[in-house]
């Protein structure tokens, strides 16, 4: 198949491109390198069937041409990282909502399938654990930057479903839960790359809030496998799927685990949320996915244990930092 990956030079996009190329598919990437990096796709440049455009999805003629040349669009281009989102809410909303609208509009002309990457953030403050795709979404007030991200991605979902129902566009929506792995940069505040960098450089490991908040981390390799399978499964069209792991860990335990696996002497330092993000920042105390829907349809399973995920990222980071 011919795939177009928007945001294909990013962390998830570059792993996806690699996996598709290995399976013999053709891959075209569009990325403006705002948060992606050429380094992520450097090794793919000479592969057969790979093309890339360093440009924005807001370049409408180019986007149309790339969509026309593909069979399926995997739309990953979006604002990433809670820190960046809180700092740049205008960019976040514009990029997410207008960007997705442009992609859907380009796809509908030739009825190209679109797989939209959404996020577990849309569950917001829901307390119905584990989160099911059919569950209610509980969003906080509009004066808190974080919720603008959740709402912008939720609007993307509504828009994709509207295009499907009203215009017959084949769409698949996935909600990604804390996806991690090599190449994810700590630059945008994500916890695992941050902790690993700090541990490897002997800096204090910064735990925000009490550290009792929990997350479930999934290896990008498992997510990529599911993205490919869902993009090929006709029964996935018009549906929303959670993708994540059921292995829950508190952030404080995570800090201790990273420290142990990295054999680091770093201290663990607690930092209040208002210092880490902004005054009145609201964090999710818990986030656990129910992935039975994706498991039943495409056999999705998070296969990599957290300790192995951390070891994999540490090895990658050591290589990058020449340690
Ligand atoms: N976090 C932390 N230290 C860091 C970065 C993040 O304690 O250096 C916390 C953050 O407050 C959240 C969790 O780790 O409770 C996961 O953060 P991340 O930004 O990776 O993903 P989120 O689940 O918030 O989207």
Which key phrases capture this entry?
323 residues; alpha/beta; Rossmann fold; two-stranded parallel sheet; 12 helices; 42% helix
**SSE run:** EHEHEHEHHEHEEHEEEHEEHEHHH
Alpha-carbon distance between the termini?
40 Å
Strand content is: 15-25%
CATH architecture of the domain at 2-179 and 217-245 and 289-301: 3-Layer(aba) Sandwich
| Strand adjacency order, main sheet | 3-2-1-4-5-6-11
Would you identify the CATH H-level superfamily of the domain at 2-179 and 217-245 and 289-301?
A: NAD(P)-binding Rossmann-like Domain
- Poorly predicted regions are none
Number of strands: 13
Q: SSE layout and pairings?
A:
Layout: E1 2-6, H1 11-22, E2 26-31, H2 38-41, E3 50-54, H3 60-68, E4 72-75, H4 82-87, H5 89-109, E5 113-119, H6 145-167, E6 171-176, E7 179-180, H7 191-200, E8 205-208, E9 214-216, E10 218-219, H8 220-232, E11 239-243, E12 248-250, H9 251-261, E13 268-271, H10 273-276, H11 292-298, H12 306-321
Parallel strand pairs: 1-2, 1-4, 2-3, 4-5, 5-6, 6-11, 7-10, 8-13
Antiparallel strand pairs: 9-12
The protein binds uridine-5'-diphosphate (UDP).
